[in-house]
Amino acid sequence: MPTPKTVLPAPDLDPAHDPGFAAAGERAQRALDGTPARALGAPLVVAGHEVRVGTASWTDPTIVKGGVFYPRGTSSAEDRLRYYASQFPVVEVDSSYYSLPEKANAVLWAERTPPDFVFHLKAHALLTGQPSEVARLPEDVTDMLPAALLEKTRIYAKDLPLEIYDAIWERFLDAIEPLRRAGKLGGVLLQYPRWFLPNPPNKDLIAESATRLAAVGATVEFRNRMWFGSERSTQWTLDMLRDLGLTHVIVDGPQGLESSVPAVPAVTNPRVAMVRLHGRRAATWEAAKVPTVERYRYLYSPQELTPWVERIEEVAAEAERTVVLYNNCYGNYGTTNARETIARLAAPGD
Question: Which of 118, 151, 224, 237 has an alpha carbon 20 to 30 Å from 263's alpha carbon atom?
Fold first, then answer.
């Protein structure tokens, strides 16, 4: 395996969690050496049910450099996706949060991946109470905006006339329809921001989104600790998701912050469970003007993975499909941890 370029360590992280791409690559290779061929690019069977392990991106600039994750020479968008799909059976599309997805891309994604490959897409920012840059909206949407909104740099859904909000939902769902028709759409992630609190209006907004996504399935991740601040609030949150047929996203991330959510290994939808692991880089988690990739720059140690593998096995026993996504997509950190998790779950006797 070619040696990737040296990168400077993050000052707030120790070498165990930011060892550089070369050291992470060595760990990935050891995991590959211990992984049965049948487990490469294919779902696993754990506790009698399907488990898919992958990452929350395959196109980040830090991952596409030659020799970091992709073999040198794997430079085209098609080649990268085909290689990724040969290694993992699932991926999350993060770009759909920043810009409405393009239908043409969904067609290509379906064509370039194996028949049993699955995509999960992150809902666009305007669909989860978060701002969107006006410049990132497609022309047919900006043509509908009132003049006062066109003058703004960023807009929120609460500022939009209902017909425009509906049009954005329709545009989003139409764009991902090729994946649904191909049987490759695992669902849509509704990731709500830290200012999205557990109250009746927001519960109504979640219920509305559940209705709009009934045909494709939805998973829900919160970023405010109040949703799970006590035993009572935790039960209220989980019961709400069960009643709406939504999947509670079990998360791992930095703790002790306003947006910190504890790992609550509960299955609210027997068809699909989801685990998303963000790393534990607390210093950048809520910091302003930090590049997204730096926020999740964190390699889990083998010791930190052990309890998560056990949780995944427990969750898998309760859901028909469990999706595990590593969102620490800095270089090969996420892919390394995903490979290590697959190796453990696929180990003989496990």
Answer: 118
